[in-house]
Amino acid sequence: MIPVSLLIGGLVLLVSDMVARIVVAPLEIPVGIITAAIGAPFFLALLLKQRGRLA
Questions:
Q1: What is the Cα–Cα distance from 10 to 19, expressed in whole angstroms?
Q2: In angstroms, what CA-CA distances link 23 with 16, 27, 32, 43, 44?
Q3: Contacting residues for 35 by C-beta, under 8 A, at least 6 apart
Q4: Mean pLDDT (whole number) for 31-52
């Protein structure tokens, strides 16, 4: 599970960096903003899934 997490995490950061450089071509968006935009919905989905189990 850990090697898969490492690969997926690296891939997410790589894609986030590419998107941050391409979206506004002459400027760069901070990678953290793109990563948060990807991670926040995923985190909320995990929370809602966990909340459904406890209820």
A1: 14
A2: 11, 9, 14, 24, 25
A3: 12, 13, 16
A4: 90
Tokens of residue 55, six digits = 């209820």
User: What are the CA-CA distances from residue 42 to residues 27, 30, 36 (Å)?
Assistant: 27, 20, 10
With H, G, I as helix, E, B as strand and everything else as coil, classify residue 24.
coil
Residue matched to tokens 């966990």: 50
Tokens representing 42? 């995923």
> Residues 3-40: pLDDT tens digits?
999 999 999 999 999 999 998 888 888 999 999 998 89
C-beta separation of 20 from 35 below 8 A: no
Q: Is 24 left (phi over 0), alpha (psi -120 to 50) or beta?
A: beta
